[in-house]
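Risk register update: the risk of archive-format incompatibility is retired. Evidence:
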Amino acid sequence: MTPSKILIVRLRRIGDVVMTTPALTLLKEHFPKARLTYLVEEPYRRLVEGHPALDRVIAIPPQQRFKDFVRLVREVRQERYDVLLDLHGGPRASWITFWSRAKIKAGYAIEGKGFLYDIRVSRRGEKGPIHSVQNHAALVRALGAEFEDTEIPALSLPAPKPDEVERVRAILHHHCHPERSEESHIKCHCEPLGVAIRLEESSRVFRGISSPCATSRHPERIEGSDSKSRPESFEGSHPSTPRQNEILRFTQDDNEGVKQVKLVVLHIGAGNRFRDWGAKNIAALTELLSRVPNVKIALIGASADQKVQAEILASAGGSVIPLAGRLNLIEIRELISRAALFVGPDSGPMHIAASTPTPIVAYFGPTLPAHFAPWRPQGSKVVILEKNLACRPCKQRECLTNDFRCLLTITPAEVFAACRPFLT
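Archived output:
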């Protein structure tokens, strides 16, 4: 197959869009002459706009009037795409696929929708769960591309704009050097990430940290997806490529010389109640982190998370930088790329963090890391905390135990213990 025009459809959700980027890289690698177009909803366009594999991005509103949808379908039909790759499978994506006039339509073998596609790929593996990134790659393979799972590339996002880089730099300078001049007292320390480490803890919850497995790059878990949820809107975005094998840590001057400021980016949002660790837990973790010498904690989230942020700030000290609702998606990534550590639930920002070399500590509730763990090359530093409960995974519509124990039984002390090795 030698397609000249390919349309990729993935309409929404931060993490879901980010996890399609290895497939984009594979498409460009195996079909270098093809013109690639990506169809996405407006709030998430910055995650793909400017991606080196893409030639065009079509951004549509989250809610369309019928006449606007008809206009979109006409535009798609006029392009006469050789291939339409549906990486979404939702209702609107299905209708776009159905009316597209694409010569070949490829998508997932979803009950009731299989007839839409000429090429169908199962989302379920014969030997167990399949990571979302691998599912997307499988659709590229179904088009005739030949590669092993071990050859699936890392997440890749477009480069930031200069004003976005400067905005993040200015925020960090203000909070880490409130009384210093613009440039004279800032330095960056780069440290190699090296290979993953292993923790041996007494708690039964801890099983360790390791590199991803040979077939899927999943980190081992510290034991213990689509859903109906509020939008993961931060304030926009235009991501950047990873700084390979380094983390950036700011330093500040004091009377005793230069001391390292270790920035921890803590995602306080959830996306839905099933992934909400709770303000009390986050505040307790923030208090524990603030005890570590020279640590600064940047709180990130959507505008809707500012109420939770206020609760955290009420009990937090001067080590906290409140940034919920203040940064767009690419600025979130730029901030994380400059941090010593990212901490948060299975969420869009966690996947953005996975596109950087910054270490990650993530806590999983109703979802499984086998499907949604941070996708990283071998040797990356990723720690996942989860509880081994019979009710996991769930569809996040109703909690069978009515207490969200899968997430809420993970304690701040356990998360802090996982964070501590990265802050020494």
